[in-house]
Structure formats: structure tokens, C-alpha cells
Amino acid sequence: QGQLVESGGGLVQTGDSLTLSCAASGLTFNRYGMAWFRQAPGKEREFVAAITYSGRTTGYGDSVKGRFTISKNNAKNTVYLQMNSLKPEDTAIYYCAAARTSYSTTYYANANSYDPWGQGTQVTVSS
């Protein structure tokens, strides 16, 4: 079972940018798609973005399309989430996760398709 560690969260203002990182260990990173989810207080976990194992295919939740970009560096065992034009409604704990299935050419927006998960990093956007 692999381990994922997120970093890069923090307190920013509306309109700012922030990049989250997720470092993986204990799994063959280049075999697995990755995803970011988020959870705000009192709300269910929400799909943010996903990328296939090769990095060729990406997908985004409707609320972040055009503002967020997911990328994957297999040489560094790291997945990133570039977040631009941040809004207060982006405030949440952001989690990264690795796909359960290796070498999948499609991405998944369902949280049940992912394991393991990181511990999360807090992103707070002030108005």
C-alpha cells in the first residue's frame, strides 16, 4: 500500500493562485492515475480533477473547469494541482488519491475508484 502526502495549502485571497503537490511513495507511481478531491465543512467530498497514469487524459469537476490544472511528473512521483482565480467557495480540505486500477486509460470521478488517499491539505480563500 502506498503513501501520499499533500502540501502547498494555505490562506489566500480571492483571485489568487496556489499550487498543491502530492508526493507518492511505496507504489509504482507511473502505473496509476491520480486525482484530487476536496471536502468543505458540512459538505460531501467533491471530485476536483483526475489524470490518467500516462498523463495524456485529464478531467475536471464543473466548478473548477478552466481555473484548475492537474499534472503529473512520473519522474518525481508527484501530482500537482494548479489553482487559479481562486474563490471563497474553493475553501476546503484538498485530498489526493491514487487509482485502484493500474494502467487505466480513462479517469474516474468516483471516490470509490481511489485508494490510497493522502491526509489532506487545507486551502482557505478569503473574500
Extract low-pLDDT stretches: none
Strand content: over 45%
Oligomer: single chain
Q: Give the distance, in angstroms, between the N- and C-terminal Cα atoms.
A: 40 Å
Task: Name the average pLDDT.
Answer: 96
Q: Based on Cα principal axes, name the global outline.
A: globular
- Profile the largest sheet: 7 strands, mixed
Q: What is the count of β-strands?
A: 11
N-to-C SSE string, H for helix and E for strand: EEEEEEEEEEE
* Rg, Cα atoms, Å: 13 Å
Instruction: Return the structural class.
Output: mainly beta
Please work out how many helical segments DSSP would assign: 0
Describe this structure as you would to a colleague.
With 127 residues, the protein is an all-beta fold. 0% of the residues lie in helices and 53% in strands. It has strands at 3-7, 10-13, 18-25, 32-39, 46-51, 58-60, 68-73, 78-83, 92-102, 114-117, 121-126. Strands 2, 4, 5, 6, 9, 10 and 11 form a 7-stranded mixed β-sheet that branches. It has a 4-stranded antiparallel β-sheet with strand order 1-3-8-7, with no helix packed on it. The chain is globular, with a radius of gyration of 13 Å. The model has no long low-confidence stretch (mean pLDDT 96).
